[in-house]
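Action item from last week, closing it out:
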Amino acid sequence: MPPLSLLIKPVSGSCNMRCRYCFYADETENRAVALLGRMTRETMHTIVDKALDYADGDCTFAFQGGEPTLAGLDFFRDLSEYVSRHPNPKGVRVHYAVQTNGYALDEDWARWLAENHVLVGISLDGPKELHDRYRMDREGKGTFNRVMAAIRLLEKHGVDFNILTVVSAANARRGQQVYSFFKKQGFRYQQYIECLDPIGEVQGGHEYSLTPERYEAFLKSVFDAWYQDMKAGRYVYNRYFENLMMLLTGQAPESCNLRGVCAPQWVIEADGSVYPCDFYALDRWRLGNILEDSFETMEEVRRASGFVEWSRRLPEDCKACRWLPLCRNGCRRNREPVTADSTGKNYFCEAYKHFLEYACPRLMEVCQLLRQRAGR
């Protein structure tokens, strides 16, 4: 069995910010019940009980939202204490991760994160004028200063963190500026994700929308700067580029959107409801409830639904494309509608195609450089 990773939403879609492009706020509005409350400690304990019984080797409790820190530090302290005293006859190694907007982090939070070796993803869309464009608080004010203060706290306490950047219309035009800002700040672990339009809508219709043309320009400009750093021996982790290099060297990618098929994820909402993917926490795809159902039973529901199997389907254009071994038609969320009979071509297809043609020779060069340096 592969390592077990759970994505837990302890406060459902509740958040202390009002980001204009928030995909999960839109997702919750497409459910019969939008917000599913706050997770109780008892529900969290049940998750731990069942996860440690089901897992082999490694188990990761990852938290997302909404904004997971709204569950309160005491909720997380109780979790780590419960895990530490929990019987663990199989010797499962437990890991923690939190994806946060950073808005509520303080000294106490930073200490707990450090003491429990929590990997933190913190959302930052670039320098102040770009970040504040869409990532605002409840009063419509920018959040950049508050997020940067939170990052300095993480650094002070030695917390491992990476930067998660949503690529939107605002920062897509200024990829090198974003990269240079992160470099100046010393943020060497970076992940960029495509901004999503509301589910079911024709893409590209909002002021913040990321179009294929904009995304192609962003990827190329960030790659150029990254390539120069990597050639000079200044290592910068970029999740997308790293996964492409894994594919180029015959390894399996760790990123779900490059596997060519949806990974068997476990997304657990605040009331215990379980879904197959963060982008599909919808009534249509509900697998069950952790309070009532076993992982084995919910896995059967996943199989019967066709959720994973449908994601394997490829348009005819993809089958003949030279970049399919690297692109894999990307994330299912960007190739809707996905049905038992067909799947759409990824919305960002042209961006991927042109970027891979542009970058592939130099990606191979970086692969060789890293191999040479590792062999010294």
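Closing note: Residues 212 and 348 are 5 Å apart (CA to CA).
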